[in-house]
Amino acid sequence: MASRVETAEYVLARIAGAGNVRYRKMFGEFGVYCDDKMVALICDDRLYVRPTAAGRAFIGTPAEAPPYPRAKNHFLIQDQLDDPPWLAQLVQLTAAELPLPAPKKPRGRFLARSPGGR
Q1: Is residue 61 part of a domain?
Q2: Is 105 among the domain residues?
Q3: Of 42, 46, 54, residue with least CA distance to 91
Q4: Three-state SS for 84?
Q5: Residues 60, 63, 66, CA angle at the centre, nearest 5°?
Q6: Which residues contact 92 (CB under 8 A, 6 or more apart)?
Q7: Cβ contact 88:77 at 8 Å
Q8: What is the per-residue pLDDT across 82-111, written as a single tens digit (0 to 9) for each?
Q9: Which residues contact 45 (CB under 8 A, 6 or more apart)?
Q10: 104 lies in a domain?
């Protein structure tokens, strides 16, 4: 079942204080980004935060579940969705621990040429 845009917008409004946040539609679901790092997924209208040591320490004993079949467990956030400061802090802690994504390779057939070269 695909997630609704309303759910993604609701989550984004809740984590707005975490930094530069956005969502991106992916295969009928949504990826949630903070400072260009994917920190969470919204699948079946539920929020799954990527597991990190800082996130686990902050939550205590998190509920864990895979966001889709054959995926690794993520932190399933349910009751804390209505606590924006708590949720924003979790997203900040998660983003701080994750690495920046690798730079994308240029696409296409055309390569940059040196001046005067063929």
Answers
A1: yes
A2: no
A3: 54
A4: helix
A5: 135
A6: 18, 19, 34
A7: no
A8: 999 999 999 999 999 998 888 888 877 665
A9: 1, 3, 4, 7
A10: no
